[in-house]
Amino acid sequence: MKITINRISLPAATLALFTAGATPLPAQFGNEPQKQLPPPAVNFTQEQDQQNMMDQLGIKVLRPGASGNESDPNHSNYDESKANPWPNYPDALTLKNGQEVTTPDMWWKQRRVEIVEDFDREMYGRVPKDVPKVTWTVKVTEREFVGRVPVIAKHLVGHVDNSAFPLIDVNIDMVLVTPANAKGPVPVLMMLGFPAMPGPVQPSPAALAQLNDALRNLLAKSDPSIRELLDQYPAYEPIQAQPGAFPFGPPRPAAPMGPPGINGTSNDPPPTQQLIADGWGYATISPSSIQADNGAGLTRGIIGLVNKGQPRHPDDWGGLRAWAWGASRGLDYLETDPAVDAKHVGIEGVSRYGKAALVAEAYDQRFYMGLIGSSGEGGVKPSRRNWGEQLENLTGGGYYWMAGNFMKYGAKEATFGSKNAGDLPVESPELIALCAPRLVFVSYGIPELGDAKWLDHQGSYMATVAAQPVFQLLGAKTLGVSSDYHSEKMPAVNVGLLDGQLAWRQHDGGHTDAPNVKYFIAWADKLMGRAPSQ
């Protein structure tokens, strides 16, 4: 698999030769002036970048986030009687002027616009209007196998035009896999994770021997001492055949889905194998090839490229919004591929990628469905809930996922006083509601197997319940329970609420959505009106 590494700034001493004050080089032709390189990217540490944003916002001290260590003084709260200091969430169906939203037209033209603006400004940040174009290139196309099903696997790279700032290079890494014998375009689930070809075709024994002979000759010519070593081991082959590998791509295990996690009691085939067996395709896209998962990377990646290597402003996009933007650019490609049913593309992610998957579906209405796994704070979990992970954990260590303005709500001392989660103008149920009436499957596991209490399963269920009225207004079926999020309690483990476009299921595995994939496929097939392997 190709690994993309974003170029960072050149050394200052080198750049100084080309910046103001340096003696210009003579023009090669006539009196044409020499082009000057742009200034280098700022190379902040994460701590320097966070302090820069605090200075811009006038924040002197941030409240510390909750600790996952129960023995620490600021340990997480797991007492339900203390979990709701701000029990009422903003009403998704009430305009800022107090008027009730009673029609779909009011939702689309008025209230949805208000909610998007609040999320843009205060939580996830704005995508700049001048983001460069992405050009997709198919690097590899192979006929491979997922399980025992023949597939067409493509390794794609989306190059972001960096002509305005050549010092930063962004190349989006994605793999697309579709059934080779499908009778027409197939639905595709795009997964935020680690792209890999499912079973790259291996050289035949004769071809492998030829490669090894050529490599041995090159090594022998490169250094006399290497030649002596090779003479001592005449049967040594630098390239070994992979166990079980044959030419023409025999059945191999499918690539895993999303970040590694504990599958618990599930003995199901890998999620990718389940998707292919049902007649779906899948794509895996690398978030880190879009934007680094740390604060030091904010002056590089797509955010740094657009900002020409300079620090963010308070309402600039953060990592979650950047990953979601990259997923949308992947969808741009999928819309051009004849093997893909572009009207039925979903988005999937677990943990931080679950947050990004929900943001992607909320903002891009072309995503038909979402499988949102164990997303926690900044995703499905309400920030107003005092349970496990808190808003302050994101305004502190995870600040780079969010807009700079989000840090205001973790401020203990600032020029504007202080703010907390209760001051947020929006909440997670509204993020879920932005997906309506499209399909949203909220997935969690159990703490006993690693899906930590930190994620606030009950609070996430409350947020899903609170999103129901918008789905209902738009004619979609929901969970089949009341919309009273104050009183509704989670269903038992392995009891799914899967009859509507908004769905919930807590499986008996760990920090993964893999045990819920077979339920997601059946649920989506039903709502798409398709039979398996159709």
Detailed description of the structure:
The chain has 534 residues and is of the alpha/beta class. Helices cover 27% and strands 15% of the residues. It has helices at 12-16, 46-57, 104-124, 205-222, 224-232, 271-277, 301-306, 319-334, 352-363, 391-395, 428-433, 457-466, 468-473, 517-528; strands at residues 59-62, 134-146, 149-160, 171-179, 186-192, 281-285, 340-350, 369-373, 411-414, 439-444, 502-506. The protein has a nine-stranded mixed beta sheet with strand order 2-3-4-6-5-7-8-10-11, sandwiched between helices. β2 and β3 (149-160) form a beta hairpin. The chain is globular and about 80 Å long. The two termini are 31 Å apart.
SSE layout:
Elements: H1 12-16, H2 46-57, E1 59-62, H3 104-124, E2 134-146, E3 149-160, E4 171-179, E5 186-192, H4 205-222, H5 224-232, H6 271-277, E6 281-285, H7 301-306, H8 319-334, E7 340-350, H9 352-363, E8 369-373, H10 391-395, E9 411-414, H11 428-433, E10 439-444, H12 457-466, H13 468-473, E11 502-506, H14 517-528
Parallel strand pairs: 5-6, 5-7, 7-8, 8-10, 10-11
Antiparallel strand pairs: 1-9, 2-3, 3-4, 4-6
